[in-house]
Specification:
- There is one protein chain.
- The chain is an alpha/beta fold.
- It has a domain of 357 residues: Spore Coat Polysaccharide Biosynthesis Protein SpsA, Chain A, CATH 3.90.550.
- It is 32% helix and 14% strand.
- It has 19 helices and 19 strands.
- A ten-stranded mixed β-sheet has the order 3-6-5-4-7-16-9-17-15-19, with helices on both faces.
- The longest helix has 34 residues.
- The radius of gyration is 30 Å and the shape is globular.
Amino acid sequence: MSKTRGRILIPLPNTGAMGRKRNNFYMRSLFLLALCIFGLLQYHNFNYLDSRDNVLGDAVTNDSDDAILAMVPATLHKYLTPHSRNHTASGAGAALLLNASSPGGVTATTLSFDVYHPPNITEIKRQIVRYNDMQLVLNEDTFGPLQNDSVIIVVQVHTRITYLRHLIVSLAQAQDISKVLLVFSHDYYDDDINDLVQQIDFCKVLQIFYPYSIQTHANEFPGVDPNDCPRNIKKEQALLSNCNNAMHPDLYGHYREAKFTQTKHHWIWKANRVFNELEVTRFHTGLVLFLEEDHYVAEDFLYLLAMMQQRTKDLCPQCNVLSLGTYLKTFNYYTYHSKTNKKSYASSLISTSSLLGYNRNNNNRNSVQLAVSSSYSSSSPAAQTSSTSSLKSAKVYVGDTADNQKASDLKRDNTSIKRGNLINTVTATAAISDTNNEQSSHSSNKNGAQTWNYHVLPSLYSVYQKVEVMPWVSSKHNMGFAFNRTTWTNIRKCARHFCTYDDYNWDWSLQHVSQQCLQRKLHAMIVKGPRVFHIGECGVHHKNKNCESNQVISKVQHVLRIARNSHQLFPRSLTLTVPSLMKKSKLRKGNGGWGDLRDHELCLNMTLSNR
């Protein structure tokens, strides 16, 4: 008999090790299974989005001239095709004409003609007076006289004809553009720009010319007088040298620079000219919308402006300004295909710090970063779009960024917008974000070109265009904004506050007027889905290596194409959203550049009516 038969098997104590191993195995298996399912869902989701090329277009836009032309109807290509007068024929002002009718056969005849010469200052001044006296409204015979309640669009123009061409193309595609009066206010006389403007055939057009420009007063005030005090000279030295305005430097001890003062003069002059001096606007009671040469509009901007005007009575009786624009350094337009949990989407949005964060280390002169949500809507069951904006440089000169030298001398309080209800109003499409330089509002890479990232995200569901109401803020609501004659009359009564406030920015001066003088403060209704975009790369304060870049123009065109193909424009109605809680806007010290008494006097004189 085997010895082992008599052994009694005693079970080992249960330490739980095997159970834990089994549990860990099951947990890992479940985790891997969940990860696989999640990956498959994500793969399916991106494949689904990629299959919607008819809505999204290409993920990477092409900013070549041909690609941009392809985005524009053929009938509008004439506005993008330069026809400069500054050319010569065969390099010598001559041309050859073949003559087949001569007795000796075909002969070549040389025809000489004068090469174009730009007008001199005397001729420019004469032409400016002629234009301003004539007040000729082009295309009035085609589109009829201006109606008293029609929209007037005023475009402030300097020299950037490339951007102006694209603004005109965008205006030409807008619904009801034939009903407006389009006024171009110039502070630089240029025959090529005049030819472009006079080529417009889709609405009534009027040109006005600021008569006190640096171009026509190059060596005298309001240009640069030879006896002007140098900007950085000390007051004691200025008094000893007896230079102009030695007694009145600005808040920071600097003397005037003509190139920085012109835009404020031009803005107040054009507003007064349109409301108080033009015959065609004598009885006008409608809205006047202010744009600039480096803006771009959506095709439903007039439709939405009219809707906002109609709803002010019930949504915002105190509103006297309507704002269609946002400075979108980063803007998101989302494709609509499904509802998304707000909480989960909010967490993903918050993780994008470049869209929401405020750069506290940026102390540039006009350092502001905005986080703005926007939504387009339409009658389609999935039609909502949002836009999140990050702006590090507030608008100083229209379309320009802060000058570094000016930034170190002229102080401005940094402001930020709290996130608040941003998540509740954000929906999704294609995001265009700037990922390069954190210190510049128009950052550039080593080659001087902007870098953009393109993303596609799911959306929230909405059928209403959102608007919000808040006090008018110069750095946020100065692009694509409109008001009527009543509001202008109140502003004009406060001309002394505008013209003597030591800040060379017209928008900050206007905010000073609202805070210090107006009994009824400027209160704005702002559309969350912007219909006016800023496409300018360069300006008075900032000179990029590639000032004629098409990159931003291409992105804006592509974003609007997405919105159009997704039926996100022309919303059925408006809904008011409660804005994030914001600190009360404090009275700020001016940015300077406006201490010269000659500027004060000229500004005040331009608010007088000559009608």
